[in-house]
Amino acid sequence: xxxxxxxxxxxxxxxxxxxxxxxxxxxxxxxxxxxxxxxxxxxxxxxxxxxxxxxxxxxxxxxxxxxxxxxxxxxxxxxxxxxxxxxxxxxxxxxxxxxxxxxxxxxxxxxxxxxxxxxxxxxxxxxxxxxxxxxxxxxxxxxxxxxxxxxxxxxxxxxxxxxxxxxxxxxxxxxxxxxxxxxxxxxxxxxxxxxxxxxxxxxxxxxxxxxxxxxxxxxxxxxxxxxxxxxxxxxxxxxxxxxxxxxxxxxxxxxxxxxxxxxxxxxxxxxxxxxxxxxxxxxxxxxxxxxxxxxxxxxxxxxxxxxxxxxxxxxxxxxxxxxxxxxxxxxxxxxxxxxxxxxxxx
Length: 346
Known about the structure:
Helices cover 40% and strands 12% of the residues. The chain is of the alpha+beta class and 346 residues long. A hairpin with a 3-residue loop joins strand 5 (283-286) and strand 6 (290-300).
């Protein structure tokens, strides 16, 4: 490999990328920092094919940083509904307001300024600055962690501080001074395709002859997984109040926590039955460390009769199931509203 293994590694990946990289992806057609930033946020913990339609629709709704900053949170979350990890959308919206207020609507170009934006960490800042402005900034997203852990034979879970520090050192040593933006795209593509988590295609790998995991027969063992945690179960009871017009009462969830800022039915504090209610099919929704078992109760009512029901400090609104496109809804709520039985007259 020569005297500089990092340089040889990046050179081979760039050669591979020029021939096999996914250069037809919509965010690869631009160096506009707004569009690259949006793609980087959407791609966090989300597959490319899932992101593409959301990315294109988001740019139609919010074509610029100024347009995004000027939108309401409900409008932004409505466009994000179904993509998951909604803190990303809230942070994106907040960062757009920061850029308008602090940088005149122009995306900043220094690492410290980008890192100061809401929801942007070291790796995302490096990706934007390398792709858009050619700055040789390293990145370390999930795909890159896997590639570098295998190539350098790094043991331990990449989420632990000591292992992360070692991987960052390797990320810095492999980031070239020239074509840093292409290299950023190359190593992300390489990790997402050839060096995937399952069934990596080592026979076609351009660096297999110097990959420690491949040489040592540890490809399936590296990177080491996160220590397992037992997923908790939480029982949740949702009260679906349906008025005479067929509208459902929803309330906005707290900004912090699960589904922050989105709209869902009120939760019942107890497991008691309500007079005149219909029990709907139970829903299950899995989060990283907890599974929600959601038991919906449907109650037909007159809107005026529930004005003072369980008052809270949350915003509430009546929404018709066919007209929910302007607010952010969690996926189980979208499913639930779409499957509601026909209204029973009272």
